[in-house]
Amino acid sequence: MSSAVTPHDGDGDAANELRELRLEVAALRAQLARRTAETEEYRRRLVASRNQAERLATQLKALRGSSSWSITRPLRMRRRKALNNGWT
After folding, report:
1. Using alpha carbons only, how large is the chain's radius of gyration in Å?
2. How many domains does the chain have?
3. Which end of the chain is more exposed for a tag (fewer CB within 10 A), N or C?
């Protein structure tokens, strides 16, 4: 008995390869969807962090522009000088 190759033998291999490739494509699409969701979450966090930084910068500017900040300036300078003299 000979092991003759029939035209359908190659079809089975091609069908298996096609099935494997489709599974791989599906897996890659799922991975892409996960990565896209992660990227969007990081983008959302970045926007939130930038907004918080802007709010804090505004608060700091308002604090430094306040009259109490101006009034207490000599005390801060004296304290800073005392601390620097203690460390040097």
Report:
1. 34
2. 1
3. N
